[in-house]
Amino acid sequence: MKRVTLMEVFTHPITQKYLKRSGIAHAIKTADHAFRLAIAFNVNPDLATKAALLHDIGHYEWYTDGKWDYEKYRKNDIHAIKGANRAHKLLIRLGEKPEAAKQIALAILLHTDSYLPDGNLKQNPLQRIVRLADELDEEPGGMHHYRQIDEKLALKKIRTLDKKVEKYYSQLKSIV
Ligand SMILES: [Fe+2]
């Protein structure tokens, strides 16, 4: 079965529409971190980079009178739930294997516990990596969501990441 590439995922209009809200530069940087962590911890880099790239695809714009409303966001946000659902739908549509789409969706669902009731979350290595990759790129006050990246450079980085994943992809047997 042919691998669905990061390029296919990234350039899809759904991805472009929603990642522009949460920041394309942040999504790519998180995918970069996820690749390195996946190799270091022997996790499938294909799943890790896709989940990292799409982890914030569920964001909604919380505005009050034209201004970003952080309080409203903290109180009402469910971006991990929406993101998991959105990413799953997109990946299946692109021809992703259902098992892989599920693993990616779950990693997105659990990349943050800001929306969950208190308690300890038991995460598998893939889920931990995506969370850690996101945290590595976080800036105070959520500024990482506003960092910009040139469109051509973004495509170049995605292409490079695809090449790196393909190199390791065949060497990993397990799905997680
Ligand atoms: Fe994030």
Automatic annotation (TrEMBL):
PROSITE patterns, sorted: HD
Sorted UniProt keywords: Hydrolase
SUPFAM superfamilies associated with the record: HD-domain/PDEase-like (SSF109604)
Membrane among keywords: no
Keyword set includes Hydrolase: yes
HD domain sequence ranges: 23-139
Record-level Gene Ontology MF annotations: hydrolase activity
UniProt name for this protein: Phosphohydrolase
Organism expressing this protein natively: Aeribacillus pallidus
